[in-house]
Amino acid sequence: MKNYPNVTIFHHPLIQHKIAILRNKDTGMKDFRELVEEITALMTFECLKDVPTRKIMVTTPLEKTEQTVVIENSVAVVPVLRAGLGMVNGVHMLFPTAKVGHIGMYRDEETLEPKEYYCKLPDGIENKIVIILDPMLATGGSANAAIDLLKAKGCKEIRLMNIIAAPAGVEAVAEAHPDVKVFIANLDRQLNEHGYILPGLGDAGDRLFGTK
Is the pTM of this model over 0.90? Predict the structure, then answer.
């Protein structure tokens, strides 16, 4: 896969350690959910390094000092239902005031094309940094559809955060939306004939919520 200037792939050993446990088929639902949140929090640190800020005066026990704070209501997260819900708390660990929208999509098992069934977004989302959350980036179809929807709503600063991605999905998003910053915890090898990521970690939604 060629390099894309809008794509960041993490190589931090703490993230890789947690992904190794996440992949294990014997990792239970509670641990899986906590690992997803922890990995997301580590990724959020980098994803929001250029979040809007302002200056305020703070009084310490010794004197007044000018300090930098993040501008309130500047960020919204939009999980792609349902697996993206597992990443929301990870962002809220670092940015607890981020508003949350929801986009519901499912993948047609025959065509592998995304189908939208739900959309609820915070007021004023077009003026915020919007982070789309989805643990898996497979073909890129759902991610591109979510980005298209947000752009149609007027969003100008969109970012995509995925834990596991396939090269085909990264290429699809990077080429369709070069203005969208993509953050990936791990780039896997390929997709299988059913559009699932290899080696992957199975169905993230099922493992997060205990369904099959």
Answer: yes
